[in-house]
Specification:
The structure holds 3 protein chains of 3 kinds.
Chain A: H1 4-29, H2 33-59, H3 62-99
Chain B: H1 2-27, H2 31-51, H3 55-79, H4 93-110, H5 121-126, H6 136-144, H7 146-165, H8 180-203, H9 211-228, H10 239-258, H11 260-263, H12 274-298
Helix pairs in contact in B: 1-2, 2-3, 3-9, 3-12, 6-7, 7-10, 7-12, 8-9, 9-12, 10-12
Chain C: H1 3-26, H2 30-52, H3 61-98
Classes of the chains: A mainly alpha, B mainly alpha, C mainly alpha.
Chain lengths: ~100, ~325, ~100
Amino acid sequence: MNSIPDVLGALLVFAGTAFAVLGTVGLLRFPDPMSRLHALTKADGTGLGLCVAGLSLIARDVSAAMLMILLWLGVMLSGATAAHLVARRLLARQESAGGN
Amino acid sequence: MGIDAAALLLDVTLAATVVALGWRCVITADRFETVAVFIGISLVMAIAWTRLEAPDLALAEAALGAGLNGALLLAAWAETRGIEDGPAERRIAGPALLAATTMAVAGAGLAPLVGAEAGLAAEIAARLDQTGVSYPVTAVLVDFRALDTLLELCVLLAALAATWQLGAARPLLRGKLYGPVFVAYVRIALPLLVVLAAALLWRGATSPGGAFQAGATLAAAGVLLLLVNPAGRVPALSWAYRICASLGVLAFLGLGTGVTAVTGRFLDWPLSHAGALVLVAETAATVAIATTLALLVVGGRPVAQRGRVGKRH
Amino acid sequence: MTSAGFVIYATAGVALIGAGAFGLARARDALRRIVAINVAALGVLTTMVALAARGGGEADPVTHAMVLTGLVVSASATALALALVRRMAHLRGEEDADGHDG
C-alpha cells in the first residue's frame, strides 16, 4: 500500500466487489426472474471488469493484465448468452401461460 | 501481520461458504435447487483448492465437477421431472445420527494429523529429472503412477460401456433451445475451447494443466455441439466413437507394453524419449476423456435417427 | 499453509462429509441422493487437499494426483448412476403412458 497504482487498484477492486454484492442484492430483492437477470448479468459483469482493472494495476504486468481482460470478455460473452437463453425460456413460458 | 489476518479471514469465509452451500444443497426439497447449488459449491470449491496450493486440481474441479457433473445433473433433472415417488424424505433422526457419527469418526481420524509434516513433495522433486516433465503433479500422474492413470481411463470407458447397455440415446431437448444468438455464441466459443484445451494439455508438462483438464474442456465443447444440434441428437453410433473413447486405454497399453522392450518394465518410460511418449499418451488420453464425457452427457447409445440430422429448423 | 489454514479447510471437509451422509440417508429421490454422495465426495477430496498442503513446504503432489483420479472416477460413477436414473424415469414414463408395463 505504498504507491498510486496500488491504492487505485485497491479502490477499483473494492468497487468491483461492491458491484457484485449489489448484483446479489438485486437477485434477492427483485420481484420477477426477468429483472433478476438484469441485476445479475450487468452488475456482475461490471464488478468483474472493475476487479480486473484493479488487479491489473496492482500486478503491473501487461501479460497478466491481458489474460485477465480475456477472461473478463469470456465471462461477459458466456453470461450474456446464458441470460439470453434463460430469458427466451421465460418468455416462452409466459406466452404459453398467457395463451392458456 | 495484517496480511495473515486478511488471509485467515479469506480462508474462513471460503470454508464457511462451502459448508453453508453443502448443507443447503442436501437440505432443500427442491430438486432443481439441489442441482444448482451443487454447481455453485463446485465452483467455490475450486477457489478454495487454489487457496490450498492445488491450482491444477482447481482447474479439474471447475471443469469436471462444476461443468461436466453439472451438465449431467441438469440433463438428469430435465428427464426426471414430475416423477412422484411417495414421501419425499425420511425422518430426521436417523440421518442426523449418521451425519454426526460420520463427522465424529472423520474428525477423530484427522485430529492427530494436525501438526504432522506433509508427505512426498521433496522426494518427487528430487526425482523429477527422471521423468520427461517438470511439473510434479503431471510427473506423478503420467510417469510415477501411470498405472493409476491407465486404470482410471479404463473406469471411464467402463462407465461409457455400461451406459450404452442401458438403452438408446434420447433427445436431450424437447423444444428448440438454439436460436441465432446461441448459434453465434457456439461459433465463437467452440474454437476458443479447442485452443484452450490444447493449451492446457501442452502446458501440463511445466505448469498446472494436463490431460484431464484439457479433456474436460474439450468435452464441454462437445456438449455445446450437442446442444446446438436440433433436439440434441447425435449422429449414429459408429466406429469413430468407439475408437476415440478407447484411445486413452489403447495408447497407455500399447506404449506401456512397447517400452518393455527398451526398459524391461511395463509403463516405464525410457528417459531419452520420456517427454515425447508422455505427450503422445496424454494427447490420446485427452481425446478419450473428451469423447467419453461428452457421450456420457448424451446418456445412451447413439442410434440412427429417422430423418436427417440438422435438416429441420 | 499454516496449521490454522489446514484446520479450517479440514473442518470444512468433515462438515461436508456429514452433509453428504445426512442427505444420502434423508432423501428418497435418487437424484438428490446422488448429489448428496457427490457432496460427501467433495468433502473427502477437500480433506485430502488440506492434508496435502500441511507443513511449510510445497504441497504433496502424490495426494494431488490421487485427488485428481478421485475426481475423474467419481464423475464416471455419477454419470453411470444418472444414466440409470434417467433410464428408470424413461421406462416409468412409458409405463404410465401405456397403462401397463411397456
